[in-house]
Amino acid sequence: MISLKSANCVFASIFLSVFSFQTIAATTQPVPAYWSTEQRAQNLAFHGQYSQSLAALSGDSSDAANLIRAQCLAATGQVDAAIALIANKSDAQIESAQIFLDTYQPDRARTLLTSYLPAHPQSIPAHYLLGQSCEDLSDLDAARTAYSWFTDNKFLDRWQQNPDDPIFANAADVVTIGRALNRLAILNGSYAHDPSLHQRLLDLFVRSYDVIDREYWPAHLAAAEYFLAHDQEKEAGEELQAALAANPNNQHALDLDGRMALANFDFDSADKSIARIRGVNPHSITADLLEARSLLRQQRPHDSDVILQRVLTERPHNIEALSLAASAAALELNEAEEKKILAQLNQFAPNDATAYQELGDQLAAMRQYPESESMYKTAIARAPWWSEPQNALGLLYTQSGDEASARITLTAAHAMDPYDLRTANYLRLLDDLDHFSKKESAHFVVSYDAKTDSILADYLPTYLESMYPQVCRTFAHEPAVKTFIEVFPTHAEFSVRTTGTPWIGTVGASTGRVIALVAPREGTETLGNFNWAEVLHHEFTHTVTLSATDNRISHWMTEGLATLEEGTPLRWEWVPMIYQAVKQNQLFSIQQLTWAFVRPKRPIDRQLAYAESYWICQHIRDTKNWGWGAILKMMDGYRRGETESQVFKNSLGIDDIEFFHQFTTWTRQQISTWGYDPASDAQYDALSAQAKTLINEQDFSQALLIWKKIAALRPMDELPHKRLAGLYLQLHDQIHAIAELAILDNLSLKDNRYAKAIAGLYRDLNDPANEHTFALRAVWINPYDPRAHELLLDALQKLHDPKAAHESAVVSFLQSRK
């Protein structure tokens, strides 16, 4: 969730940048020939063409020209020159106040506006800017007083009675009224008592650009911010792009675009926004803060702090910079520095809640749940009228598995802001979870929808408890609390549980204590059947490694270890992909790996990241001088807050760059025997054609020999094993057929045909123990498959164990299908 409170004054100023003159037309359209030089310059400035506007004003030193010139100078970072041009002009005080707010000087803005308003008591922008400056100084009572002028004048009532009233003829005024009323509603908690207020205020922004002035792009920016504050990202994005189309150089629109990109881990887009801001203003504090925020999101707190110290040297009382600096200290586990910064902030802003909200967000992103909870609670105590920390805390509780607290907190947040989409989604989800059945075992609590997925309750706890000791021994750690397993009947519900939105392209996810799973069955609302046991094994490994490292393990490593723990080799579909990546030097560096998971740039990036992370962990485990002890030492380094480079240096004796060099040398050795080089390709094709001819001639024995050669030539290829299994079955060689089918089954996540075939062969060989093993695996891959259950029941009955696990469940399932 993006915090917008601290950015309000920054975004606000652009709405004021055209109060001194009327909007003319978009620069993409021809301008009238009769326009004056000042009109042309003002139009260029409005659309972000500041250099062209300044050039057009060359030689014109009128007050009107100087006002436009000041706006352009301020936008390009020449603030002192801009203020000097208009400082002594009584009709330019609004513009000066705007520049002060734009450049993070709210104290100067408030001083100016306080002296300006007595002589101009009906100034719409002055009252709004005064409220903004007071908010930025954490003087919320004064902000409420300033904003109350808008309710005292009953603007919203007058708007509803007659939106065509001349007082609403100016789009800039209407947008400012809407923004002021929104801030007052938030500060007073008015949304909780007036459900219609949301739509009425939104109408002010929409009508501004849709009816009053179609060229007034700042109204789109206001609407974007308004939508985003309610987690309606799609609508916010559409409005923001409309604003940027009209003015691609406005730093506030670019800042918002960058923040939205960061919320989705899109660092490249954020970097583009930063670069575009600096292209207009090389010294932009807005760009510095956005870059610092991006570096924190990338888990680079030290680099972020370097930028923040530069900002604080210039603006020592900048609350956003101090908030981010405290966050950087917290992420570096420097508690003393974090407390020092907060103490400094509290000296001049004792009632500020935004710093604690910021800290909560940053800590939550790093899964530091207890610390994040404390920060959110402080923000709530300081700003009980503000829904955002309530929302964030409620979502934190859902991630950490405290659903009772989540409901209480999210209900309170929803009462404050009934239009927050993510909160509404989570509350609906909690309602659904209330109706789930539960099955508790020694270390797990399984929740499921008994109407659709009761069969899973008979299998999951038994499997989970059998897996638990092995995983915990492997990582020398046991979670302190039981793990919650929540199985959702639809993919949309699973996605909401995981991300707050109804789509995420996976079937299982761990947030630490909570593992969410979409039901592994066919249907229009699921992603089909899959080996839920393997997925749970993977996700529980996340739970253990996260718990063992206080959630500080690098994302790539927890994924690599979870994939390694599955006990399967490189997946068939990974082999050509990773072969090409090695040959073309396209493996991710250690620093790139995590972000290949989080924000892949190509369709193959996430799969390649899984494969490479698995391979790295395997390489460390199997290297003589490192071994599994090095893996555990790395995990302990992450727990203690070491950087990536420090973890490698302290655990392996080399830094991550040297490790990556050694690793890539090892990968080239690995692929050298895979048979994907041109000579092997030609041999493969020739042998395959020869084998095909032999099969057509039904010379299965000779075809078998050829396919053995192919399998030896290309050992990482699935097809030879399929052909060999089929040929062994043709030749009635059940034992060798089972061996080939087992290789295929071991790498089959969604297809239980191989497991069923093996179980059937063992049934024919009168080997009920092995029949049971593979029939159970077939059920794991598709727990709704009657044939798999029939094989399992056959094995159980032959084993003559009246207490055999699953037998009653199998019988019940088969009876239900009759």
Structure notes:
Helix content is 68%, strand content 3%. The protein is elongated and about 100 Å long. The protein contains 44 helices and five strands. With 818 residues, the chain is mainly α. Helix 2 (37-46) runs parallel beside helix 4 (63-75). Strand 4 (508-510) and strand 5 (514-518) form a beta hairpin. A five-stranded mixed sheet has the order 1-2-3-5-4.
Question: What's this entry about, in short?
Answer:
With 818 residues, the protein is an all-alpha fold. It has 44 helices and 5 strands.
**Mean pLDDT, as a whole number?**
90
Q: Per the principal axes of the C-alpha atoms, what is the gross shape? A: elongated
Q: Biggest sheet, strands in spatial order?
A: 1-2-3-5-4
What structural category characterises the helix and strand content?
mainly alpha
Largest sheet: 5 strands, mixed
Helix content class: 55-70%
Report the span from N to C terminus.
49 Å
Tell how many strands the DSSP assignment holds.
Answer: 5
Name the beta content range.
under 5%
- Uncertain regions spanning at least 5 consecutive residues: 1-28
How is the topology of this model organized?
Blueprint: H1 8-16, H2 37-46, H3 50-56, H4 63-75, H5 79-86, H6 93-102, H7 106-116, H8 124-136, H9 140-152, H10 155-161, H11 171-188, H12 197-212, H13 218-229, H14 233-246, H15 251-263, H16 267-280, H17 285-297, H18 301-314, H19 319-331, H20 335-348, H21 354-365, H22 369-382, H23 387-400, H24 403-416, H25 421-434, E1 437-440, E2 444-448, H26 450-457, H27 460-475, E3 483-488, H28 491-499, E4 508-510, E5 514-518, H29 532-548, H30 555-565, H31 574-583, H32 590-598, H33 605-622, H34 627-639, H35 644-652, H36 656-671, H37 678-696, H38 700-713, H39 718-730, H40 734-746, H41 753-764, H42 768-781, H43 786-799, H44 807-816
Parallel strand pairs: 2-3, 3-5
Antiparallel strand pairs: 1-2, 4-5
Helix pairs in contact: 1-6, 1-8, 1-13, 2-3, 2-4, 3-4, 4-5, 5-6, 6-7, 6-8, 7-8, 8-9, 8-11, 9-11, 11-12, 12-13, 13-14, 14-15, 15-16, 15-17, 16-17, 17-18, 17-19, 18-19, 19-20, 19-21, 21-22, 21-23, 22-23, 23-24, 24-25, 27-29, 29-30, 30-33, 31-33, 32-33, 33-34, 34-35, 37-38, 38-39, ...
